[in-house]
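quick one: adenosine monophosphate bound model?
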Amino acid sequence: MLFKELGLSEPILKSLEELKHLEPSEIQQQAIPVILAGKNLMAAAQTGTGKTAAFALPILQRMIDKPSETQRSNARALILTPTRELASQIADNINDYTKYLEVSVLTIYGGVKLETQAQKIKRGADIIVATPGRLLEHIQACNLNLSNVDFLVLDEADRMLDMGFIADIQKILQSVNKSSQK
Ligand code: AMP
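yep, here:
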């Protein structure tokens, strides 16, 4: 199977070609059509199987298909992940896939100054990749608005629960558009 057959468009295909991602992996073949169809999805796949692209590529495609009606400062996709390392990795992957798209990505995680991060948040981004604790601090400080989030990803949800993030995640979900795709 080819990525083209999954319904991804040229700017995404071009970046995949440059990355030498020649064929979609198993999880990508299964998840991409479901997400493109607008359905909610829960999937399990080991690290290294292409899980990040399995959710990132169809979200990017859906963002292209339906451009935002609101300002860019309001994120359209929120990806929650347990650690800052994972957040950076996911953002790096997405930056690779958005080389030919006008889509911006912002990471939010602890261990860096809240104020510096708040400045960046004010400039806005289309996609936010965040760890729950620090994201919640920004929500509570009214630094960001998540009401336009159309796509919500809980990456490594099991690990986030193991790490005790359940209460933070529940609070974050109250700020996210209820009809977002999950
Ligand atoms: P992940 O499982 O998301 O951590 O991805 C593991 C690695 O596989 C990352 O470095 C991706 O860039 C790479 N990757 C993802 N999808 C593909 C693909 N279809 N073909 C080749 N490499 C891929």
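The radius of gyration is 16 Å.
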